[in-house]
Automatic annotation (TrEMBL):
GO terms for cellular component: bacterial-type flagellum basal body; bacterial-type flagellum hook; cytosol. PANTHER family: FLAGELLAR HOOK PROTEIN FLGE, FLAGELLAR PROTEIN. Residues 200-344 form the Flagellar hook protein FlgE D2 domain. Belongs to the flagella basal body rod proteins family. This is Flagellar hook protein FlgE. One of its GO terms (biological process) is bacterial-type flagellum-dependent swarming motility. Residues 7-37 form the Flagellar basal body rod protein N-terminal domain. It comes from Phenylobacterium parvum. Residues 85-161 form the Flagellar hook protein FlgE/F/G-like D1 domain. It is found in: Bacterial flagellum basal body. Keywords: Bacterial flagellum, Signal.
Length: 465
């Protein structure tokens, strides 16, 4: 009977508009939720077969949920470097636990990048999800796999522990006085391999040769400790533009196996007539003239037991330090050091995190070291709107979304990552309030259908009276 179908159509209208009200309410409630994607209820008519000509049976309406997951929200600046937004396609891969992940543990996808470092060093967002990434190996290499989420680990900043950078290069900018002076023992008796060495003078001025110029510098050893080295120079009276040079440790007891106390290396520095350093003519610290390699000093580990090495009491690893001395000059001016710039850093602890646009996560240490930790991968889908929503503003893969493909940011259609930024909700309050009004009116109209059909049925029943 058509009246009955009208009654049912009115009920379907109430149900459909109730669903619309629920979606609008969800949208309004999540106006300030990071990276929230609005949901919309569309309406589709239901058609019943018309069996008898001249009669019509109402089919009613059904609610169809439409997700706008692929829509990009406005990217807004944030105060924390671990607040991350995706500009473009892709989702962060997250899990609900940080450690002991197995292949059976679920992986989720989200664009909510409000991450922070928890007490255990993991990057966790406001919903409690742990950010996943491809880990960096000991040499700083990262190996990616676009089809296997189990190759990603929960990113942990504190796993690195304290870090040390051993000195491997020293850049020196100095001038040696072309006028020179004669050492107290004299150039004629100088011999870098005997008691008349410059390093001997540092330990026993009565026997060693006094240098014309000496300076000291600090280098970092493998244990993060500071070792002091001295460079000493003596003008060669037999050659206008040549200098004897030595490098030795201070104190001498830091080095074992040396020809003279503390002595690490010796050689000749030569200069051109214009005062510039003559690299090709120098035989400094064991480097053959003209080979083009920087002078290098090398000491074996404390445990070596023989040869030139660090003293056993220090208990440190071998050192190899290049000396960049191209900036040395020889002018008729007082010998002086303009700058000494060694690389290396003492023991340092993590004090910050930085995330690059390509997803590389680095730990910043209080000794100015920066260490690569991992690279964030972004999961892309053929149909992001087909993802199934779960709690915490996250999603799981579905048959409608298609298979995931995890990509490096900025490659293969994946977006870039913006640090100190968050993606805003895609909810437009003005549109939602408008929808709220129309939904209310439609609900009232549907209820009117029911009351009208009820009155008509009552009239039909009253015919018998």
């Amino acid at each position: 009977m058509s009246i009955n179908s009208a009654l049912l159509a009115g009920v379907s209208g109430l149900i459909a508009n109730s669903a619309s009200l629920a979606a609008i309410s969800d949208n309004i409630a999540n106006t300030n939720t990071t990276a929230y994607k609005r949901t919309q209820i569309n309406f589709a008519n239901v058609v019943t077969s018309q069996v008898v000509k001249g009669r019509y049976s109402a089919g009613g309406v059904e609610a169809v949920t439409r997700n706008f997951i692929a829509n990009q929200g406005l990217i807004q600046s944030a105060s924390s470097a671990t607040d991350l937004a995706i500009a473009g396609n892709g989702f962060f891969v997250v899990t609900d636990k940080g450690t002991d992940l197995t292949t059976q543990d679920p992986r989720y996808f989200t664009r909510s990048g409000s991450f922070s470092v928890d007490s255990d060093g993991y990057l966790v967002n406001d919903s409690g999800y742990y950010l996943q990434g491809w880990p960096s190996d000991a040499t700083g290499n990262i190996f990616t796999d676009p089809s296997d989420l189990t190759q990603m680990n929960s990113i942990n900043i504190k796993d690195l522990g304290a870090q040390v950078l051993q000195t491997s290069n020293v850049i020196i900018n100095a001038n040696l006085d072309k006028r020179g002076i004669t050492g107290s023992v004299g150039d004629a008796t100088y011999n870098g391999a005997t008691v008349a060495s410059l390093s001997d003078y540092a330990n026993n001025p009565t026997t060693g040769t006094k240098p014309d110029f000496t300076f000291q510098m600090n280098v970092i050893d493998s244990g993060g400790g500071t070792r002091r080295l001295a460079m000493a120079f003596l003008k060669d009276s037999s050659a206008a533009n040549a200098w004897h040079a030595e490098i030795y440790s201070v104190p001498a007891s830091d080095v074992a196996g040396a020809a003279r106390p503390g002595q690490i290396a010796q050689g000749i520095m030569r200069f051109n007539s214009d005062g510039s350093f003559d690299e090709a003519g120098s035989t400094l610290f064991g480097v053959t003239a003209g080979v083009g390699n920087p002078p290098n000093i090398a000491l074996a580990a404390s445990s070596a037991g023989a040869g030139l090495r660090w003293a056993s009491a220090l208990g440190i690893e071998a050192a190899s330090i290049d000396l960049d001395i191209d900036r040395f000059t020889q002018f008729a001016a007082t010998s002086t050091v303009a700058s000494i710039n060694p690389n290396g850093a003492p023991v340092g602890n993590v004090v910050g995190v930085e995330v690059a646009e390509d997803g590389k996560v680095s730990a910043i240490f209080d000794n100015n070291l920066v260490r690569l930790v991992a690279q964030i991968g972004l999961a892309t889908f053929a149909n992001p709107d087909g993802l199934d929503a779960v709690g915490g503003n996250a999603y799981v893969q579905s048959t409608e979304s298609g298979e995931y493909s995890v990509k490096q940011p900025q490659l293969g259609g994946a977006g870039k990552i913006q640090s100190s930024a968050l993606e805003a909700s895609t909810v437009d309050l003005s549109a939602e309030f408008t929808g709220l009004i129309t939904t209310q009116r439609a609900y009232s109209a549907s209820s009117k259908i029911i009351t009208t059909a009820d009155q008509m049925l009552e009239e039909l029943i009253n015919i018998k009276r």
